[in-house]
Amino acid sequence: MALPINYSLRNALVRWRSTLATVLGIALVVFVFVLLQSLAAGIERSSANTGDPRNLLVVRKGSTAESASLITRQTLTEIRYFEEIARNEKGEPIISADVLALVNLPRRERGGEANVLLRGVTPRGIELRPQVGLVAGRWFVPGKRELVVSAKLAKRFDHFDLGDTVHTGSGQFTVVGWLAAGGSAFDSECWLDADECRSTFDRDMYSSFLVRPVDEAAGERLIQRIETDRRFKLKVEKEVEYYRKQTMTAAPIKWLGGFLAVMMSVGAVFAAMNTMYAAVGARTREIGTLRVLGFRRRAVVTALLVEGAFLAFFGGMIGCALAFYWNGYTTATMGFETFSEIVFEFRVTPKFVAEGLGFAVAVGLIGTLLPAIRAARLPVIDALKSI
Question: What is the pTM for the complete model shown?
Fold first, then answer.
């Protein structure tokens, strides 16, 4: 068995042109497969990495997202002093009433325009989100029409440098700081004072409440108390669970990645089969010689399958290496939940690399199987007489 396998591997080097074509074809398939999966994983991670497990998010019952929710100011007055809500060092309830607004802003270098999500928050809102911090400048001061933008968005949109003025709604805001949120959904937002956001966009209501209960038991009581009160018509869930569900954008990308992988893999299988058929045709006398020397059909089939799997694995490694080059690359897309710009990073994980390599080997084996069987069935006399 050792001789046919050694012969097949040496043949891959001798006939390097056909070998290179097979390897590069499979590398391209694996590259696209891994890259699209890592793109979807990056979007999912931006949502799954958002929020504090201690917090509860309150939105209007029936709304699918914060941006579609409306809650009256009277409701805030009635809820904020519930005994289940924790207090800070100053004795103030740890609850933030947020206002969300979409604005259309120009990209840098004349790259068109896109929607950006503005979040109006109270000072408690910053306190409730410890994963959000400043990387430059300072926090906004309520009443001074100031804006803190995502550092990642600042690289993509005009007028987001410190000191710049952003014209939106019925007013203008001065950029006083850049925020960073550790790759979470907040990296796709700009923050300003909640009351200024309401007045600028003529909003009479809030979009959501973010609450921190005293403890887990108090949180369960608070959920029960709010959701069963018919005056409010609100629903409550843990902040981390809410954002974990906001991954609709990743689903089409995953589907597209799987679809393209299947379509390209079909092409790769036929390319591998064509290459191996040509290789078998060029090596007819050599295969016949192996049979005369006493090697059985299964030895010849195994040798050719090992050759195909080896070439495919090598191509898969090249494809994964190309995809890994994009690991951590920051880009953006439109979120189907908010219709705003979502900033995320490509996440090439060991799981995707393993799947890509396994996918490559499977393509190589399938593409080599029929040519290998044909080679093994060649009559020995005919093989030796062939030119």
Answer: 0.73
